[in-house]
Amino acid sequence: MDTMTTKETKKQVITTSQVEHVALLARLELNEAEKDIYVNQLNNILAYMQMLNELNTENVTPTAHVLPLYNVFRQDEVGRHMPVEKVLANAPEKEEQFFKVPRIV
Amino acid sequence: MVPEYETVIGLEVHVELKTNSKIFCNSTTAFGGEPNTHVCPVCLGLPGVLPVVNRKALEYTIRTALALNCEIAGFSKFDRKNYYYPDMPKNYQISQYDLPFAQKGHLNIELNGNIRRIGITRVHLEEDTGKLVHPATITTSPYSLVDYNRAGVPLMEIVSEPDLRSPEEARAYLEKLKAIISYLDVSDCKMEEGSLRCDANVSVRLQGKEEYGTKTEIKNMNSFKSLQRALAYEVERQIEVLGNGGRVIQETRAWDEGKGITLSMRSKEEAHDYRYFPEPDLVPLVIDRQWVEEIRASLPELPDARKTRYQRDYGLSAYDAARLAAELELAEFFEACVKCYPQPKMVSNWINGELSRLLNLHNININACPLTPPQLGALLELIEKGTISGKIAKTVFEEMFNKGKDPAQIIQEKGLIQISDEDALIKIVNEVITQNQKVVDDYRAGKDRALAFLVGQVMKVTRGKANPELVNRLLKEKMQ
Amino acid sequence: MELYYYPAHQLHQMLVKKEIKAEEICLSVLNRVSQVEDKIKAFITLTHEQALAQAKKVDEKIARKEKISPLAGIPIAIKDNICTEGLRTTCASHILENFIPPYNATVINLLNQADAVIIGKTNLDEFAMGSSTENSAFFTTANPWDLARVPGGSSGGSAAAVAAGETILALGSDTGGSIRQPAAFCGVLGLKPTYGLVSRFGLVAFASSLDQIGPFARNAEDLAWLLNVISGHDPLDSTSRVEAPPDYTGFLVDHVRGLRIGVPREYMLEGIDVQVKQVINQALAKLTALGATAEEVSLPHSKYALPTYYLIAPAEASSNLARYDGVRYGFRAGNAVDMIDMFKKTRSQGFGEEVKRRIMLGTYALSAGYYDAYYLKALKVRTLIKQDFEKAFSSFDVLVSPVTPTPAFKKGEKTGDPLQMYMSDICTLAINLAGIPGIAIPAGFINGLPVGMQLLGKPFSEGILLQVAHIFEQNTDFHLKKPDLK
Ligand SMILES: [Zn+2]
């Protein structure tokens, strides 16, 4: 197998503003130092990923599932519910029988 | 000259399917219930849980898609739609992206006698979210509460083509869709309980233009009336913006029922990037053609077919037939009445007339109607036999509606039996003639309206119970 | 030899013959834990009392002359990303530090039905993302053969516990090598079953299309016994195979005559330590001496497995880990001004560095405009990798390769460079992408550190892999060597 090279690539695949956008999508808060680290590391990793472009995959079907399984169903039957104390047992905050969360907007 | 704009509307309708259990777990779909009591580890999105598809939910979706003349996919799959919201237990929704269960269908709407075919882009299946409860309004609440009872209820999404050209058409489309789904018995279709929900994409363009204008998405319309009002408002707003030289901004707007306006919902949120990808926890679906044909064969008569049958077999007008067929329960009530009293036109007149009026007045559904088909049949028979007059019958009908009593009982209790006894009536007729000599003279002089006055006088004395035809004849005979 | 180092199948015979009690086995293991755990740190949670109570129940069954199942009374450690009802399941993450599942994973129900004795929850890299347990939010587990080295990961706690005699058996999970790599580093056996053989219900998802639960043991027969209990169809897992698995103990015959072994060229190139290659070649010589044939084979897309894996796994992970938001369970950060702020603070404070890095990478790979270039591309290359194996298995019964390029590395050696750390999985990743089974077995030592051999088979050929492993250990003694923990 090829040994990995982690040398700096000239081409920036991902920029700071993209890292910020991705962090927002992923609901992560990054300070400036972390942003720099991610820009650097993700660029290294993504540069390595470019290797895949060597392959022509135009006529290749993607594999999302390895098993040739289809049509797995369950019958429409109602089972037992969890007692509400159990439902809320791990809740960081609750009120009456609800999960409590900070204001939305 | 003021430019003429054309309205372009497409609707996205969400329908909760009435399966017993949720789409991916065996928790109940029952509406209501104490908060967070209709949940299990799967629909709570606990770490480690996996979904398994409820076959019934797929069957209901195919059933609906077939009724909407869709093409059913041979190969389909579920995808994850990723976004964060506290009412979504996993912060992704299992939905369908590029391979929905059905596509390319249509339904016909009828407005002012014109029939228009509205395209259905796609029908797909997804899971519903939980519900947020705000102690105050969403903007003023210091915190929110979450109830996951609804999370995982099967939700069918039906997307129309942008074929609707007015708020009225949009309403007609939604009403038709609701009728079809009710006929199929796959959903309760209750807008007030949220089992039928509707969002709209609205734009306007100069008459004759090919390309669409910038659209806005309108949410939070909770009744047919609010749909029509919201769309009318939004169309007018967009025309005004354009008329003032402005631009319509592509955005989501919420309908405010109280204020009668739509408001921008723009927030600091990022532009939506749902990062769809194939749901790895669910395997693909190869939809068996034979199963599809079995479902097709089991489809009930749909509203259009029923309307045609009412016109053809019962001789009803297109308008009356359409009104009856628009609601399954109403149509079934009608047919039950016809069984008891086989004069469809008469039955239709009473249902579309008095009954509809009272249902609307008291804001109740035909299901909750206290009056039974045999009772209405009995009433119509009493009219036919001349036991009561048509006018008295309305009074009796209202009493039946309010108390659920049989017509005969009401007539007896209130002494409303029509006087068809000649001997009894002749006395009153004579009295009326002597007391209104001038009117009698007018009649004899050829004034036809005079007769109506005299009939009215007889009815007044008998408190409406006299048989009007008999009174007519007796008056004429006496005045000859 | 102390009871804690006995094979499970032998302990079973002793129980049946009433030579020992389940309680004694349990106490032996618990004593061993108290002796060595401060050095190894394999466990996040121990279950002393429950374990003893469970063992006593088995003794009562035996006393009542009831028939006991093969794993009855046998101590087993569970990787802490498998949900255990009423028993804390942390995934070695602050975000689930106090999470107590209200339900059992299917494998746990199966172990309970078999009367196995769960003795604790083992350490791992946070959410199974890592190759050393150094990404655990709590502590790093030590390699029993050299405490300064890592036990491998992510199932490092399970592998180390088995190697150190802190348990008889263990369960791990394997997404890209997380069972086989620590098994190799710790000198024990570990099996990654075919995708779909063991239910994933209750396994906290990392990358759903790659994850499998699998067994650790110190010999092939024990591995077969444990696989018998945990494999099989589960209606709660849509990706679980419907056909019933065979009795794996039936494969433990003592010949390999006619077995066709393929040796993938790409797994023996320059990235692999020379001494590791020597160990594998010696093992191959042993197998051919026993009647198998060995021939070189090519898996031409092997070098693409790493970039493919590190697109697919983080993409799925970014979605799977979205649910940790501080609403329903787990850690919630304080002082949030609103909902989105709470989400961000909770996740930023709750997740460790590697987890966040993979969430970032996966989110990016799935985001609008990049999906086709990265995620879709990776799914297509996955097809090519899978086809490589299909082609190889048309000519060979099993493939043999190293498990890792080197023996266990030192703690801290690779923490600075994520790509270097990812490299330690180059021999194992492709197997998960192809969904096929792989087993790691002790095949030799380099400077006192164990070296593992990887056996790969076509889908659902675990039986043949166990057969080869069994014959190999019948003719070698690597699996019998024990680390010195004085
Ligand atoms: Zn549920």
- In what order do the strands lie side by side in the largest sheet of chain A? 2-3
- Hetero groups bound? zinc ion
Radius of gyration of chain C: 21 Å
The averaged pLDDT of chain C comes out at 96
Kindly report the oligomeric state of this protein. heterotrimer
And the CATH topology of chain C? Amidase signature (AS) enzymes
Which characteristics define this entry?
heterotrimer; A: 105 residues; alpha+beta; Histone, subunit A; two-stranded antiparallel sheet; 3 helices; 3 strands; disordered N terminus; C: 486 residues; alpha/beta; Amidase signature (AS) enzymes; eleven-stranded mixed sheet; 15 helices; 11 strands; 38% helix; binds zinc ion
What does this protein look like?
With about 100 residues, chain A is α+β, with helices and mostly antiparallel strands. Chain A has a domain at about 1-55: Histone, subunit A (Orthogonal Bundle), CATH 1.10.20.60. Helix content of chain A is about 30%, strand content about 10%. Chain A has a two-stranded antiparallel ribbon. The longest helix of chain A has 18 residues, at about 30-50. Chain A is flat. In chain B, helix 12 crosses helix 14 (about 450-460), helix 13 (about 435-445) packs antiparallel against helix 14 and helix 14 crosses helix 15 (about 470-480). Chain B has a 9-stranded mixed beta sheet with strand order 3-7-8-11-1-12-13-14-15. Chain B has a 3-stranded antiparallel beta sheet with strand order 6-5-16, with no helix packed on it. A two-stranded antiparallel sheet of chain B has the order 4-17. In chain B, a hairpin with a 2-residue loop joins strand 7 (about 100-110) and strand 8 (about 115-125). Chain B is elongated. Chain B is an alpha+beta fold. Chain B has 15 helices and 17 strands. Chain C has a single domain (about 5-260, about 395-480), classed as Amidase signature (AS) enzymes (Alpha-Beta Complex). In chain C, strands 1-3-2-4-6-5-10-11-9-7-8 form an 11-stranded mixed beta sheet, with helices on both faces. In chain C, helix 8 (about 275-290) links the parallel strand 7 and strand 8 (about 295). Classes of the chains: A alpha+beta (about 100), B alpha+beta (about 475), C alpha/beta (about 475). Chains in contact: A-B, A-C, B-C. Strand 1 of chain A pairs parallel with strand 2 (about 55) of chain B.
